[in-house]
Amino acid sequence: YSHLDWDFVPAKVIGLTINKQHNYLIINKGKRDSIEVDMGVIGADGVVGIVSATSEKYSLVVPLIHTRISISSRIKRNGQIGGTMWKGRDYTKLELTHIARHITVEEGDSVVTSGLTSVFPEGLLIGTIQHTELNPSADYHSATIEIGVDYRALKYVQVLHNKNKEYYKNIYDGMD
Question: Which residue has the higher pLDDT, 112 or 1?
Answer without folding.
Answer: 112
